[in-house]
Amino acid sequence: RAHTDAIAALNPRLNAYITTTSDAALTAAAHADETLAKGEARPLTGIPLGIKDLFCTNGVRTTAASNILKNFVPPYESTVTANLLRDGAVFVGKTNLDEFAMGSANITSAFGPVENPWKRNGDDAALVPGGSSGGSAAAVAAGLAMGATGTDTGGSIRQPAAYCGIVGLKPTYGRCSRFGTIAYASSLDQAGPMARSVRDCAIMLQSMAGFDARDSTSVNCDVPDYSAAIGRSLKGLKVGIPAEYRAEGLSAEIEAAWQQGIAWLKAAGCEIVDVSLPHTKYGLATYYIVAPAECSSNLARYDGLRFGERVEGPTLDAMYEATRRAGFGPEVRRRIMMGTYVLSAGYYDAYYLKAQKVRSLIRRDFTESFQKVDVLLTPTAPTPAFAQGEKTDDPVQMYLNDIFTVPASMAGMPAMSVPVGLGATGLPLGLQLIGRPFDEETLLAAGSALE
Ligand code: GLN
Predict the structure, then answer these.
(1) Fewer C-beta within 10 Å: the chain N or C terminus?
(2) Does residue 287's CB lie within 6 angstroms of at least one atom of ligand 1?
């Protein structure tokens, strides 16, 4: 009730939810009370969660924040949300995002921007919550959910977590099933938890993770007890500091937070090691070839026939054109056009194939550094949250937000953003931990020493 009341009071301003399911949530909560009374509690019984509106939820509208899916009601449940429901979670609503998860500020949603619950000291300007999981981050930060699901293709869990002062974990590619999650770039998309503490993330991930035969890239390996990693001794843990992340545009306050994080980990017994990831500088350029290429292919299915909205036209081609013109916003169209271009005959070798080769080199950088260290510590984003309206006229400025999050995505490594305090203007700052494949436990262990 506290959460549904908070949603009623604050969602009109924050716009964190596209769809709220308060009545159903209160009914489910009453049922959870009975379950608890009978002593049959499951790990998430009665826990109110927000679900990014990219996860298909059976019978509950799922829009991807796009006009083309504005009335789409899935007839099935995504594996991640089914796992959370199995463990007793109560869904309070579907959270806002950038359209089809394409963006870094939650300003491309067809349902309007999300406002960050934080303000700069002495300044009332509305700030962006980051993106694309901006609704999830704002909802968790403002107490409109105890936790939320996010998806991360190039940083969409970690960067909004940093901007809103919460914890966000992108698991290893293949750890959580993609079945029933609306696809953006399939070789990068990964679901993960967003919550107010590392422990809450561990509990959520426990439920979300696991092999699923319905996702061909789901990996069949053990899901360890994540909560057991919290508070584990860090003595002797080798923490790598990659030189290349000391990049241009890194703000002084984030640099200071990074040094503070290094000091805390040292104090906890970690050994700090300088490492180099030389191909980091190609991360963004490569990502913005691979992700749009996959997006242009994935979004071909929205043709006015199979899913979502249709705008009639005199011929089949005219119907396709009218449907897609009305259905997709400008950023999604830009991505489809970039993706179609880099995949087209004559340009495929120069762009797409080259990007795939560079992607292998980026992955190799990580593999080599993980022979020397157990985990990497970097900033999550170059700056804290910025104002709504800033950086919006230049897409390249917007893409630069992802400079520190994209490399781990390209390599499929698990990575987590942890809030480490407030910066000069009173806004939360986040640091990123990047780990070995399927070693989310080390992220959780080291993260609990930083938060
Ligand atoms: N900002 C990046 C993009 O727009 C990442 C988004 C994401 O991780 N879904 O592609």
Answers:
(1) N
(2) no
